[in-house]
Design a protein that fits this description.
This protein is an all-beta fold and 223 residues long. The chain has no helices and 17 strands. The chain has one domain: Jelly Rolls, CATH 2.60.120.200. Strands 1, 4, 6, 7, 9, 14, 15 and 16 form an eight-stranded antiparallel beta sheet that branches. A hairpin with a 3-residue loop joins β14 and β15. The chain is globular and about 45 Å long.
Length: 223
């Protein structure tokens, strides 16, 4: 059966809050010895995915094919297992990230903007295709998945037909999630298991789409 779902994304500014050109330990530093990572080599950067292939210079396509179109980067799912994803080839260590996104509309299709570190700290925006009036925020500290109670649901009007701006303002003391410029969630350092589960390691930015109901995915992610 033929089906096809699209997500479009235009990534706007990424601001690195601390000094530029820092390097960090790579792979999972809590598990093994690693070589240095590349930090964002500028204080501020941005990608306009409507502008052609050069828009992907700071990004690696880690799965599938993602192309520049007049609407932005196009992520499409045409068959089971498709999960086109791009990730920044730089890391930020605290900072501000903003993505203008129109989510995909298929039931079971998940559109995501994720900041993720090598040791699995994570800050998420996740839009579930079945719900065209809401989006979720979530976070993980060091891959701690002992409970799935960290997500919140935020109302947003027709995220699958209209572009909205989803941002994360990440500092050492708190994380703000912003929808169209308004703070819709704040996580304070102390709220994340006294800070131990607060995301506090260098992160890459990942933008992608995947089929949440795909039988090949882990049980907990299938609705
Ligand atoms: C980007 O992709 C290239 C080619 O697959 C790979 O060699 C490189 O390590 C990747 N860079 C990052 C930062 O992941
Ligand atoms: C879902 O989105 C696709 C591509 O944007 C569009 O062609 C299709 O009509 C949409 N389907 C529904 C049910 O809104
Ligand atoms: C993982 O998170 C739970 C709460 O969700 C917390 O009780 C537990 O202490 C955390 N584990 C670690 C290793 O931080």
């Amino acid at each position: 059966m033929a089906f096809k779902y699209f997500q479009w994304a235009i990534a706007l500014p990424f601001l690195l809050q601390l000094c530029a050109a820092q390097t960090y330990s790579s792979c999972n530093p809590t598990k093994k010895t690693c070589s240095a990572d590349t930090g964002l080599d500028k204080y501020r950067s941005s990608s306009d995915f409507t502008s052609g292939d050069s828009a992907f210079n700071d990004w690696n396509t880690s799965a599938g094919t993602v192309s520049s179109t007049s609407l932005g980067a196009k992520f499409s799912i045409a068959k089971q297992g498709d999960a086109p994803t791009i990730e920044s080839n730089f890391y930020i260590f605290f900072g501000y990230v903003e993505v203008k996104l129109r989510a995909a509309n298929g039931t079971g299709i998940v559109s995501t903007v994720v900041l993720e570190s090598d040791d699995l700290d994570e800050i998420d925006w996740e839009q579930l295709g079945a719900y065209d009036n809401q989006i979720q925020t979530d976070y993980f500290g060091k891959g701690n998945t002992t409970s799935y109670d960290r997500a919140t649901t935020v109302s947003v009007s027709s995220p699958e037909e209209t572009f909205h701006t989803y941002a994360v303002d990440w500092t050492s003391s708190k994380i703000d999630w912003l929808l169209d410029g308004n703070v819709v969630r704040t996580l304070n350092y102390a709220d994340a298991v006294g800070g131990s589960n607060f995301p506090q390691t260098p992160m890459r930015i990942r933008i992608g789409i995947w089929a949440g109901g795909d039988p090949d995915n882990a049980e907990g992610t299938i609705e």
